[in-house]
Amino acid sequence: NPKPEPEPKRGPPLRPGLTPNPLGALGLPAPGTMQRTYLRYVPEHAFGVIATPRGNSLYAEGDQLALTPSLRDVGVWHLKQGSLLRRLTPESTTPGTEAEEVASLTLLPGGRVAAGYTSGVLRVFDYKTGTQELAFHGHRSAVTCADGTADGAFLATGASDTDVVVWDAVAETGVCRLRGHRGAVTAVAFLQPKGSGGNGAGFFGVVSASQDALVKVWDVAAQHCLQTVTGHRAEVWALALNPGATRLVTGSEDNHLRVFRVRGEEDVDESGGDGNAIVAANGESGGASVVPALTPMGAVARQLTDKVNQLAWHPSSRYLGVLVPGKALEVFHVRDADESKRKMKRRLRKAKAKGEKEKEKEGGGDDATAVVPAAAAAPTLTAADEMEFYALLRSNHKIRSFAFQNSAAAAKGATNVLLSLHNNSLEVHSLPLRHGAGKGGSTPLITVGGAGESPKAEPSVTMPVRTMVLDMHGHRSDVRAVDVSRDGTLVASVSAYSVKVWNLKTQNCIRSAAVGGLALCCAFAPGDRHVVVGTREGCLCILDIGSGDVIENVQAHEGAVWDIALRPDNTGLASASADKSVKFWDFELQAGGNLGILHARTLALAEDALCVRFSHTQDRAKLLVCVSLLDCTVKVFYDDTLRFFLSLYGHKLPALAMAISYDNQVLVTGSADKTIKIWGLDFGDCHKSIFAHDDSVMGLHFVHGSHLFFSVSKDRTLKYWDADSYDNVLTLRGHTAEVWALAVSRDGAAVVTGSHDRSIRVWARTQEPVFIEEERENELERVFDGELNRDAREDDANEKGGGGGDDDDDDDEDVSNAPTTKR
Prior knowledge:
This protein has about 800 residues and is mainly beta. It has five helices and 58 strands. The strands form 15 sheets. A four-stranded antiparallel sheet has the order 3-58-57-56, with helices on one face. A four-stranded antiparallel sheet has the order 4-5-6-7, with no helix packed on it. It has a four-stranded antiparallel sheet with strand order 8-9-10-11, with no helix packed on it. The termini are far apart.
């Protein structure tokens, strides 16, 4: 019998989480080495944002729904219920667009809304079903404005890349790209009526305004600039066409609104008479001039002197809203035809009387040679004859955008105005509508006059009133700290002077309370029924989640409370403060069943304490307390006697965050010097120093039961690390501002981050494996693509800057006929 083959020698058992590398036979890496497998984290939810200050908000379905920009999503809110119905989320994400924001919203017929993004993408959603219908890629920078035709078949977009693109929404392709502006396009509109009372300009046209102080009229069929309106002394920031497409209003940095009469179909065959008339594209006029598309009607003075941010018409075309940076909204009233004619006649009579007085002062003269004033010689309507100041609507906070309700019919003689505020909230104001009767016309709600003037009292006059506020579902400022309950169902967040508790599954705010100071840190107390909050004024506040009340407010420190850490045995907590001390507190049950804290010990330090952490051992004799100080060192003490144990130094700037592994072997510190250092807690040696982020590291947290940890930074990223191999496993992007806070659920299935963009994001763990080499290749490709895009933008800027001496005629002919298609 042949001898049996000897059994191969077996190596030591593999550590948990290590698997043989399947590419070992190919030499990637060398055979015999082991590779740890990781699971991927993906963005799951983003909540806490009602309306971002970058985009504009809209009314939908009369005054029932509001569409708001919510970072990358579009929020659909039911105003009367005060609840979020759904979020309109883009279907796919291309690399490099994870942190894109909604820059503009445009309402389309058929229950659709067009959203322009900072990445240059235009997406069309059905806000009734929440599905994405179209996606157009045609701009290299943010889509600042958009407009659609009355039937929604065509869309026009303007962007910061100075281009205007017209899209065919039915064929899902681009129609043309219109080039001619030398500044960012700020407003665009189709010269077609969206309501009754007009018949359009007689051609398929688009009008656009830009930061180059020009307003251009484009013929889409000929892909040619028909008219360039000059006269604005600075950038044109807003443009609005009334629903009847008969009047166009522009706003700039001065305190005047310029009004233009839009040419109608009845004016196409009429002959003009001056050099402002539009000629054919080849320069031949055919012997007769044509009425220009836009005819100036003069200017209307505004009450506020700041630049115009937004212009919008009421659906009835009788009111015009003017928004400036600040807390006020101007409303102008448009007179009807009879009132405008009476106003014009009064103006002509005054001008004629003034001319006669001047004639008498000059000593008389022959009537045949008398000079007739221009106002009396040209009996035409002006902007001042048609428009007058009506009301000034004020808010307690800065207004980002506004919208009139879509229904032209006024309920009980008033219309609703939706205000989107800079503090992440919405307000609805009721504006009374007063159409003038008789010779007096309408009387302004707020008259601006001298102290000696006494306006006639009218008991029927009612002021604009605020009828609704939507602010429960978001913080007023940036989120400074977050924490996850032990069962993973609740999330606590603090911002400014408030603390909120959220349901992690539904993303609804279940409790909101005000604290007596600027909140800086928070933590769930044992039992997950209370939240402890530290403030800049040195107080420790305890919030009862059941009742939503602050049941205790203790003046704990003389300086700001920067951090809170719970003891591993759940019997107390420690607070680190700017008064150069760390205080230890014990939980106690007060009368009535409320939770309270009792001061036990104080650890005096030489510098301000920025962060404090406990080790995870249950043995009180081996329990360690790590404190980060302002002198860039980390001190380690024994908890039972507060005896000094270790001093860890090496950071060039103070350590702002710390985390200790579950087995008390590894301490990770993150500093303002952009580095993460991995230390051994047994001897205090530094295992590794990693240049981790492009800005200060603000938060660190280990995944329970492993040596894997997360870090967040002011560079807007969340990174996933391995403390054993020192590898950057994953880089997650999505926040649009600095990330201040980080928390990880106990099972490691969810990671919660809080940011300066006022959002709270949840990153969920999936079963998809992560390969570090592939992630590194993707990161290199992302950097390379970013450099290419930056070079392309610089080339475009150089080309536009080099042609600064060209004539306006050359600008009009600079039109690209190449269509832009859907990617």
